[in-house]
Design goal:
Oligomer: single chain
Shape: globular
Largest sheet: 3 strands, mixed
Helix content: 25-40%
Strand content: 5-15%
Structural class: alpha+beta
Number of strands: 3
Number of helices: 4
Order of helices and strands: HEHEHEH
């Protein structure tokens, strides 16, 4: 079901006036509130339909210690599908790794692969 719907979308449909923001489900609870537990640059994701609600959540994330450049706004609540699909890989990795998180490595702008 994750490729056609998400819990975030279902909550938004059930409560259309709610300002639903999906975040923090791709990291261990210890990393949620202390991202420095994982050394180096790594990322946290936000999805939601309400830009103001996402800004509020992003502010809370920075208060937890997340750097603003580590917070990736994926778009509307429909993008929660991809984040929820990642959960299967996350739990597989959690079975073999200690504290970890995902890092998005980007190609520098202006550079093209050959």
């Amino acid at each position: 079901m994750a490729n056609t719907d998400s819990l975030g979308e279902r909550i938004q449909r059930a409560f259309p006036d709610a300002r639903v923001v999906k975040t923090l489900n791709t990291v261990h609870v210890d990393v949620m509130v202390d991202p420095a537990r994982v050394p180096g640059q790594h990322n946290i994701f936000v999805s939601g339909n309400d830009p103001e609600a996402k800004r509020t959540v992003s502010t809370l994330l920075t208060e937890f210690g997340w750097q603003s450049n580590a917070i990736l706004d994926l778009g509307d609540i429909g993008t929660a599908r991809g984040v929820e699909m990642y959960a299967s890989l996350y739990f597989t990795l959690a079975g073999v790794l200690d504290t970890f998180n995902i890092a998005i490595v980007r190609r520098e702008r202006g550079l093209r692969s050959s």
